[in-house]
Amino acid sequence: MRINVTSVMVDDQDKALAFYTEVLGFLKKTDIPVGDAKWLTVVSPEGPDDIELLLEPNNNPAVPAEAFQKALFEAGIPATSFAVDDVHKEYDRLTALGVSFTAEPTTMDGGVTTAVFDDTCGNLIQIQSPVAE
To answer: Radius of gyration over alpha carbons of the chain, in Å?
Structure first.
C-alpha cells in the first residue's frame, strides 16, 4: 500500500492551479469537472507518476473545511510540507517571484532546514531539506 493522492484545501481552484504550476513549478496532471468544482491534481516534475496533490475546494458543503483551514493558517501551522534540495536556494527563487514567507530558512536541531510560505489560497506551506546547507 502507498499514498497516491493527498489533498491541500484551497479557496479558489483556478488561482491555486496558477500558483502551484506557474510559481512552484508543479505540473497539472488531472482536471476533471465535478459539479461546480474539479478533480484537479498537480504533480512534481521530478516524479510525475508519483504522488498527486489534489487542489481540493474548501467550500464543499458535505465537509466544511474553511474554518479548519483558517484556524491552521492563523495558528501558523503549515497545511503540508514539500521536500527541496536546498531551502535557501528555493527561498531565494520563490521570493524573487513574489512569494510571501512567514518563516525564513531556519536550521533545526538535527540539521533539517525549513521555511514557510503563504500559497495565496489560504494555506501555509513548509519547505524543507533533510540536511543543513
So the answer is: 15
Torsion sign over Cα 124, 129, 130, 132: negative
Which grid coordinates belong to 66? Answer: 474553511
10 with 122: CB under 8 angstroms? yes
pLDDT digits (tens, 9 = 90+) for 45-69: 998 788 999 999 998 777 778 888 9
CA dihedral sign of residues 108, 76, 100, 69: positive
Q: Three-state DSSP class for 94?
A: helix
Spans of all domains in the chain: 5-129
Domain made up of 5-129: CATH architecture? Roll (3.10)
| C-alpha dihedral sign at 118, 120, 125, 131 | negative
Q: Are 119 and 100 in contact (CB under 8 A)?
A: no
Please tell me the pTM assigned to this model. Answer: 0.89
CA distance 6 to 79: 11
C-alpha torsion angle, residues 92, 19, 22, 96 (rounded to 10): -20
124 neighbors 77 (Cβ within 8 angstroms): yes
